[in-house]
């Protein structure tokens, strides 16, 4: 009990001051060393919520399996009566991503601040990461509209059949209310508003409006959940309200299996991270297990990522029956870190021709991974690769070291005789393990090399890591690329002489941001759900008009360059009251 009180007092004291936030909203990636990445926190150890007493607010988070194999995780929340997670004990396939929600549900009698803890644990290694759940209970303003019920649950749905329910908006504000928008937030495709909200609705005092949400479940048996965001204006101001909806399938409709057709199997080189501004080639094997030849006539990239992914194979490709040696190649050319997720994927459709085949197209995924300049390389590469493999180091303007791990993929022991770089101008080998060489690596055993990238320009530099081992006819050569990247999205210490003032705090209307010893800056304001409120380029002074936003907490992020040319990023939390 004493420990809990001390923790609460400490967090309350921290929130009474302007706090710096490491990353914002959906830009966070944590726990790479535990075999997974977590995205959605507001800082390295905190997640913020704000809701009225007796109301609800939810946020969506993602966990990506970076371990290379199936991963079992335990999602645990302390203070579950107020903070609730939609998943607790989950298994994620290799490279897959799980989305789940956490809801802040303060009791009707609650006030002030409520603290909880989120813990995500790798059940195999016991490695875990923890976050403080920080909930602020807002006072309910007099004369609000009301929405009934607070939550719709469709827990007895039949696969493929619409199950629907209704929400009722009552105008109890005492003023004419205009419902400007009703939309699903963080929604699965199985949930939809029917019919879709298309034009504003005006409600006189005492009138009500009813809308319908439907759930069309698939066959996964998972619980699909979402928030319904309701925007309105009354009493001369804009308002937001959130209600919850969820559904799960209990009755599965059995469908006949899909006809046997062409299959695809991706080479493992897609796991090698790629530098932003460079291009890597990835390969699919085309597997024809039928008794008929199949011809791939074309490939269509089915979404907007056609500029990131490009198919480079020449068509048509004839895939003989019972064969697996035909390949399809595509390139991955990242231009960003994809919102700090450091990966991207795209759907591709293979158009097919052939006698007696049961399908005319096959869907597959094109996948690319981007180098994280602030993370470790988690890919284990074979010492004896069957296809070209690569290494990459993204620097931050200073010498950057990275350790790469290799596995003896033979079923017998091998001996590493030597390790060297072909050039060594911009890269140098720091150490290797085990050492000294020669060293014997058992079947399935690992060998690692630490390499430092020393260039100071922002050009891409290339070298080759050469591993000499027995059981090979030629040396194993791994292409290595390095580039100094801009890391402005990472929270940095303020350069000497730079100060940032955000006043007043709390604020009701104008918020003044004053900068000193700054050459230029971009200022961005987010709410605690990570949504952009406004942004502007600023010099020494900038004013934000907060009179048009709802009461709550906001993050003001300053991304700038000091008078001496040093880049920095700093974030301040501010409370807006009404």
Helix share bin: under 10%
Give the overall average pLDDT.
Answer: 82
Structural class: mainly beta
In terms of DSSP E residues, the strand content is over 45%
> What overall form do the CA principal axes indicate?
globular
What would the keywords be for this entry?
578 residues, mainly beta, five-stranded mixed beta sheet, 1 helix, disordered N terminus
Account of the protein in words:
Helices cover 2% and strands 53% of the residues. With 578 residues, it is mainly β. Strands 2-9-8-4-6 form a 5-stranded mixed sheet. The chain has a 5-stranded mixed sheet with strand order 11-18-17-13-15, with no helix packed on it. Strands 28-35-34-30-32 form a 5-stranded mixed sheet, with no helix packed on it. Strand 41 (552-562) and strand 42 form a beta hairpin. The longest helix is centred in the first third of the chain and has 14 residues, at 2-15. Mean pLDDT is 82; it is low at 1-28.
């Amino acid at each position: 009990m004493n420990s809990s009180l001390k923790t609460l007092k400490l967090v309350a004291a921290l929130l009474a001051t302007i706090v710096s936030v490491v990353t914002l909203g959906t830009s966070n990636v944590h726990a790479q060393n535990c075999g997974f990445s977590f995205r959605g926190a507001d800082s390295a150890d905190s997640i913020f919520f704000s809701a009225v007493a007796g109301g609800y607010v939810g946020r969506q988070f993602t966990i990506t399996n970076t371990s290379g194999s199936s991963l079992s995780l335990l999602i645990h929340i302390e203070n579950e009566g107020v903070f609730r997670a939609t998943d607790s004990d989950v298994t994620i396939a290799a490279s897959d991503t799980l989305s789940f929600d956490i809801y802040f549900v303060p009791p009707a009698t609650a006030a002030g601040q409520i603290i909880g803890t989120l813990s995500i644990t790798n059940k195999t290694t016991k490695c875990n990461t923890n976050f403080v759940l920080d909930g602020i209970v807002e006072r309910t303003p007099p004369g609000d509209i009301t929405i009934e019920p607070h939550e719709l649950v469709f827990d007895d749905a039949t696969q493929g059949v619409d199950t629907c329910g209704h929400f009722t908006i009552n105008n109890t504000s005492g003023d004419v209310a205009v419902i400007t928008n009703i939309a699903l937030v963080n929604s699965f495709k199985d949930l939809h508003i029917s019919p879709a909200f298309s034009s504003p609705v005006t409600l006189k005092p005492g009138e009500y409006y009813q809308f319908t949400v439907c759930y069309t479940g698939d066959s996964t048996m998972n619980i699909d959940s979402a928030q319904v965001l309701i925007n309105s204006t009354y009493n001369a101001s804009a308002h937001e309200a959130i209600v919850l909806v969820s559904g799960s399938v209990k009755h599965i409709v059995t469908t006949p299996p899909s006809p046997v057709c062409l299959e695809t199997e991706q080479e493992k080189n897609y796991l090698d991270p790629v530098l932003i501004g460079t291009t890597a080639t990835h390969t699919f094997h085309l597997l024809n297990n039928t008794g008929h030849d199949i011809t791939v006539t074309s490939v269509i990239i089915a979404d907007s990522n056609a500029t990131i992914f490009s198919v480079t194979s020449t068509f048509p490709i004839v895939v003989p029956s019972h064969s697996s040696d035909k390949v399809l190649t595509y390139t991955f050319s990242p231009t960003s870190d994809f919102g700090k997720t450091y990966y991207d994927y795209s759907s591709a459709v293979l158009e097919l021709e052939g006698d007696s085949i049961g399908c005319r197209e096959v869907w597959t995924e094109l996948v690319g991974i981007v180098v994280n300049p602030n993370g470790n390389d988690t890919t284990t590469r074979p010492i004896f690769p069957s296809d070209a493999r690569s290494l990459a180091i993204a620097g931050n303007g200073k010498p950057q070291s990275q350790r790469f791990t290799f596995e003896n993929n033979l079923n017998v022991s091998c001996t590493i005789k030597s390790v060297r770089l072909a050039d060594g101008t911009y890269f140098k080998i720091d150490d290797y393990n085990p050492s000294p060489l020669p060293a014997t690596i058992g079947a399935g055993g690992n060998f690692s090399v630490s390499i430092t990238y020393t260039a100071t320009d922002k050009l891409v530099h290339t070298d080759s890591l050469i591993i000499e081992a027995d059981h090979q006819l030629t040396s194993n050569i791994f292409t290595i690329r390095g580039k100094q990247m801009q890391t402005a999205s990472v929270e940095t210490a303020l350069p000497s002489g730079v100060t940032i003032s955000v006043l007043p705090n709390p604020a009701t209307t104008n918020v003044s941001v004053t900068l000193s010893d700054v050459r230029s800056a971009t200022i961005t304001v987010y709410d605690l759900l990570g949504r952009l409120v406004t942004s502007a380029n600023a010099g020494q002074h900038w004013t934000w008009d907060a009179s048009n936003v709802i009461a709550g907490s906001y993050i003001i992020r300053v991304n700038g360059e000091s008078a001496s040319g040093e880049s920095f990023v700093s974030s301040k939390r501010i409370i807006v009251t009404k």
